[in-house]
Amino acid sequence: MIQKLISLSTLLFASYSFAQTTTITDVLDREVTFDAPAKRVVVGFYPEDYMAIGTEAAYDNVVGMSKYIWQARSANWEMNVKHRPSLDEIAAIGRVDTNTFSVEKVISLNPDLIMLADWQYKALGSDIQRLEGAGIPIVVVDYNAQTLERHIKSTELIGVITGQEERAAKIAKEYKQNIEMITARLEKANLPKPKVYTEFGASGVNEIGYTFGKNMWGAISTVAGGDNISAPYVEWWGKLNPEQIIAANPDVIVMTGYENGGSDAMVMGQGVEESVAKERLEGFKKRTGWSSISAVKNNRMYAAYHGACRTILDGAMIQFYAKAMYPEVFADLNPNQAYLDFYKNYLPVIPEGTFVTEL
Hints:
This protein has helices spanning 2-18, 47-54, 68-71, 74-83, 103-108, 118-124, 126-133, 148-162, 165-189, 216-223, 242-248, 274-285, 294-297, 315-325, 335-346; strands at residues 20-25, 31-36, 41-43, 62-65, 91-92, 113-117, 138-141, 195-200, 211-212, 227-228, 237-238, 252-257, 269-270, 301-305, 353-354, 356-358. The chain is α/β, with parallel strands linked by helices.
């Protein structure tokens, strides 16, 4: 009987220790109070980051998710569902960007916390008041900005939400060290900045796709030491006039893509053979009017996996851009292996496919 009482008191103490009221400051400098680690979470964005930082077990406590951003990477999603079928059973809450996000659905899930991306929080407008009025704490994180500060802060926040502060600190430290290494080498080399153009190649060869200004791939190319030709014309993301690209005459061109796409779209990612990726990239090299561009003439055409952007996994992509623009300075780096090593160290599956390539 005494032993049972001791066991019960130990259990109660452990429960109290592992679930305590915590106040954090999110990326928008909002103070948010909740019981950490959270037990019923709605993940609005960055689902793979949530797993990498919080461990696979963090998904034991996810009751709702905006699934489309993961399902857009169809082969990656299927790989994860095969490993963990319960992912497919998590309730879908809709999309903010297509006005299908369901406040009613979220409230019905009785979450004790919602994690949203910065852009989601701002786009939801008055719906935020409805959610907060229902007594649901909202924590805002942001990997889209591609700043070191927000990457670190967001990683630490997910660590608190999931009770994995030490793991989050380790991931954040490794990310910071990677950026510092690249920055230090660039400063020491002190070379002229190459002009770089990045395009999401989902629309195919005959239609100019989206490019990026001061966030996502635009920010990655800048951190890696490039002069982003899109920055003067595009704030976040948008399309350049074909003549603007030719006139800017980039030294390096990077096309990005997902696993699926049309017959001439850029395809990259899980299950994509490198020979196919190179063939698609070759098609973009032959675009009408591009023969005069330095990157084309000098065969400095590259491709990257679009799913490896706006995530704590993108440290490998910063290496990729740095090596593409300064091949001698970063000759020792292996960005593809760095990407796979992150999966090996922090995620329960390891993808197979093509995540970076070049002509």
